[in-house]
Amino acid sequence: MSEHTLSHTDEFKAGRALGLDHRKLGMWLFIASEVMFFGGLIATFLHYKYQLGFPEIASLDVFQVGLNTLILLTSSLTVVEALSAIRHGRGGRMAIFLLLTILLGVAFLSGQAYEFYKLYEEGITLTSGVFGSAFFTLTGFHGLHVLIGVVWAIVVLARGLRGAYTAEQNMGVEVFGLYWHFVDIVWIILFTIIYLIP
Amino acid sequence: MQEPATPSTKRSPRYAAIFLVLIALTLIELWVATAGLAGGWLSLILLSLAFGKAALVAAYYMHLHGDSRLYTTIFVLPVLLLVVFVLLSVVI
């Protein structure tokens, strides 16, 4: 077996073929697939928005959702601060920031649930028309991603409290962070195309 | 399988400063959306602000700035396809 083959085998076993961490590369590939997933939903929403006009948009509370947007942006800060903390070997600080992330995620979901409740009261539902179907599918799938992120954050926090992460070994936190920031980016785009653009 | 994480940043980003920029851009978005501009210009400005915010999060919070170019390529290519999808969905 050549020296090159041995070296490549060692890299592969270490999870770093291509010189990149497999878990991080896998997360980026997953994010690429998620871009296409949300891309289909966004394209559908915009197609019908420009075809039908969607007068129901007047029922949306831009400022309440704007507050929710600020909450999600804040959660991105707490996630990146958690990663920064563990990279400096400060596990306690990481745990605090992860806990804040969980609370902010729950706050976002609560805001979204309240928004959905108000729209249902006004008769705008998943089956009330094209707007309802497109809106609830798009924002609902995003909310599902936030919910998954909250559960993931709880798992990362639990592992962190058991000492699973150190200043040298924290890929679990970084990969979770990539997912959470992507969900934030999706909301940045959704907020603009659903709530702000006429 | 544990291994060292990749800090992979050319310089230490100021996360709080970037956060303040993101908040400011969001407030500007809300102001612009209610300022009564014409539809075309309004859409262009709002989309520019949104993509600017998304780029800041990707570059600094997701550490694409200074990380392997392969990650950037993996992320940007489907985004370009998404833009094509969206343009087709609006035009057709």
General description of the model:
The complex is a heterodimer of chains A (198) and B (92). Chain A has helices at residues 3-13, 22-52, 62-87, 91-121, 130-161, 171-196. With 198 residues, chain A is an all-alpha fold. Chain A is globular and about 60 Å long. The mean pLDDT of chain A is 92. By secondary structure, chain B is mainly alpha-helical.
How would you describe this structure in keywords?
heterodimer; A: 198 residues; 6 helices; 0% strand; B: 92 residues; mainly alpha; 3 helices
Give me the secondary-structure topology:
The complex is a heterodimer of chains A (198) and B (92).
Chain A: H1 3-13, H2 22-52, H3 62-87, H4 91-121, H5 130-161, H6 171-196
Helix pairs in contact in A: 2-5, 2-6, 3-4, 3-6, 4-5, 5-6
Chain B: H1 15-33, H2 39-61, H3 69-91
Helix pairs in contact in B: 1-2
Question: In total, how many beta strands of chain B?
Answer: 0
Low-confidence stretches of chain B: 1-12
Biggest contact: A-B, 60 and 49 residues
Share in helix of chain B: over 70%
Query: How many strands, what sense, and barrel or not for the largest sheet of chain A?
Result: none
Please tell me what the overall shape of chain B is. Answer: flat
The coarse silhouette of chain A is globular
Write the element-wise H/E pattern of chain A from the N-terminal end onward: HHHHHH
What is the terminal-to-terminal distance of chain A? 64 Å
- Number of extended strands of chain A: 0
User: How is the biggest beta sheet of chain B arranged?
Assistant: none
The helicity of chain A comes to over 70%
Tally of individual helices of chain A: 6
Give the structural class of chain B.
Answer: mainly alpha
| Rg over CA atoms of chain B | 17 Å
